[in-house]
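Supplementary Methods, section 5.1.

A reviewer requested that the exact input to the structure prediction be made available. We therefore reproduce it here, unchanged from the version used in the analyses.
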Amino acid sequence: MRLRGTPSVTNGIDNNIYMVALGRGTTPIIWTGVNGGGPNKTSQVYVYTVATNTTWEDPVTGNGVASITKIKVESAGGTEYFLEWRVPNSRLAASVFSSPVGLFGGTSQSNSLSAINRDCIDSISDCNSLDFTKTLAVDLTINTDSAVRPNITSVTPNKGTSAGGTTVSIS
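The structure derived from this sequence is encoded token-by-token as follows.
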């Protein structure tokens, strides 16, 4: 998640919720994110499954590694930062993998999923009603581990004609 301003505080993550929801149409399937504990406090990486109303949490002390998950804060240049977290696939609802899903991202300074700040991404019109149809769908069923990599032996760029353009030959 790309943020303006660092989520890092002294030995921890700022006391906010940073969230990403995966869903279809206007229905979220899961929410995942970081529930920041604040300075010198434990933060939680979580997955909330809507259909079963269950939450899985993994505590992360400071800005580092827990038993399963990891929180990472990295500069994106200037005043922007990346906040990354991992959750095991086994904690995601099986329906996430059945067909492509849309994404929603946002934050909550009130530490509540019912009060999402207006700094959410443009997958919803007014940050009050979810719409997963406005984002590029992600297909989690595709196994990219077995993708065939091309064997490129040469690249020859050629400048275009006086009419403009550029061509590249790869063999």
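The mean pLDDT is 76. These observations are discussed further in the main text.
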